Amino acid sequence: MQANLPAAIGFMAEVHQDDARPLEPLFAARGSTARWHERTADRTLHTVLLHSGAPDEAYAREHGRTLLFAGELYNRDELSGLLPGRVLPSSDAALVSALFDGYGVHAFRLLNGRFAALLADRERVVFATDHAGSVPLYACVAPGQVLAATEAKALRGAAARGLPISQGRAVRRRPGTCQVPAGSVLDIQVSTGMCVSHRTWTPPLARRILPEDEAADTVRRALERAVRARTGPHTPLVVLSGGIDSSAVAALAARRSAGPIDTVSMGTDEADEFPQARVVARHLGSAHQEITVPTADLLLGLPHAIWAAECPDPDVIEYLLPLTALYLRLGDTGSDGDTGGDGDTRGNHGTGRRILTGYGADIPLGGMHRESRLPELETAVCHDMDTFDGLNELTPTLSAMAGHWSTHPYWDRDVLDVLVSLEAGLKRRHGRDKWVLRAALHDVLPHEVVVRPKLGVHEGSGTTASFSRLLTDAGIPQDRVRQAKRLVVEEIYDQVVVEGRHPDEVALDAVVELIADRSAHHPCPVPR
Ligand code: IOT
Ligand code: MG
Measured by CB atoms within 10 angstroms of the end CB, which terminus of the chain is less buried, N or C? Predict the structure, then answer.
């Protein structure tokens, strides 16, 4: 196994009560593939595991039950204290399986992690997601057959057989497939397809009132633990914009690292935040790289970003596109993160990086909301915490497409609980956004970084502007650009996720032309 990656980054599993032939899997994530079949009196289980070199660590087989686990846990020590003899099992899969013995489906309420799991137990299949649904999990369920995969496109061939289950999230143009909601367990009877669901996490609704110092301390401690749990003994690579979110992560990672950490910033020929990131890198003494992506190449990456994130939301794709472009180019920098670039799902051992990001801090802290009134700030936080599920912003597939593993300390379960639950006046205070975070990190970063206002990655890299220009250059009027972006993203989504086309086969210029044409003929284009 590559020591700095989880044992598995994805899987597909099929449970059949008849002799159905298994599907050919299709994944954007890149890893080694292990396949096996298990036959019992009740059913057959076909498994495809995307692993990093030690497939045995990604599943546990006990008492006739098989557990598949893609991702990792961040509260192993706490969890091992619950086991008889307090012995830490050799893998996260074995740990979860042991907890299942004691707690049943409620074991998943105990986990702080970044994972998707599937448990096949005789007549029953259980799906589970982490609190944030940060490793997406999709399912097709019909009487006598249950299929699941960490990418929707992998289930393309089975979609027609699936029946809608009310406990799942609908997937665009895939009525037979559902997404397992964030923080959920779905417990399915294979013979009938009947499903019982349990919520294992929901965003806190109440707000805590704390003195300034105590609030900042609480945030600092939670974030330190989350960074530590995500770093382990490895040297992380932090994707660094020079804003407070990623600079805080880099600073905390650097403080606990024996040697210099690695940092990398991306920019385009249109815009970058290189000077701001350099200030942080110099302060921390990190081994820092800058990657400039030509704007035309950035836009050509749209199909890859949508293929990996399986998200039809144009705003989210604008956030994820520059990061995808960065991840795909990490191997070009001469760092020890060389990805080889063969693009298939084999090989790549010894090269993947453990990437830490500052992604997601703005959601619980209302950082994208640029006005100072507290009711509006709280409304924005509540709205964003109600609507994140299904957007797949945190999916590891964006970096797994290039053989890396990304993880997001701000969406650690305990950090998120703290951040969401602070009263809005601690988030916006003394005229600053994300005040409590800035206060929590003031002693480890230069003052200019601590007070630097928010600039989104879509702005700092010029992505929003260049995507708009692509459309106006094709004749789409300014006032229809927003709607046209939605249509472009949906069209690409339909090609790469619904139809399963490879992103290299998507002709972006033809898609743009199609949407420009539609927009010219329909004053108010209707999404199909
Ligand atoms: P932003 O916060 O700018 O970027 C997210 C992370 O991407 C940063 O913390 C950093 O780790 C990395 N990053 C950003 N820019 C660069 C760069 N130039 N080079 C290298 N790494 C970089 C959008 C946003 O503004 O991203 N994400 C928000 C809001 C999400 C809204 N979603 C929702 N409401 N459901 C966020 O909270 O991160
Ligand atoms: Mg941010």
Answer: C
Give strand pairing partners of 68. 59, 118
Cα(243) to centroid of ligand 2, in Å?
7
246 Cα–ligand 1 center, Å:
8
Q: Is the overall model pTM greater than 0.85, yes or no?
A: yes
Laid out side by side, the sheet with 287-293 consists of 287-293, 262-268, 237-239, 354-356, 405-407
Q: What is the pLDDT of residues 326-378, one digit of tens each?
A: 999 997 543 343 333 333 333 334 589 999 999 999 999 999 987 789 999 99
Q: How far, in Å, is the centroid of ligand 1 from the Cα of 463? A: 12
Closest CA to ligand 1's atom 22: 241
Which ligand places an atom closest to the C-alpha of 290? 1
Q: Give per-residue pLDDT as tens, 43-75.
A: 999 999 999 999 999 999 998 899 999 999 999
The reply to whether ligand 1 has any atom less than 6 angstroms from the CB of 399 is no
Report the C-alpha gap between 120 and 122 in whole angstroms. Answer: 6
CA distance 261 to 137: 32
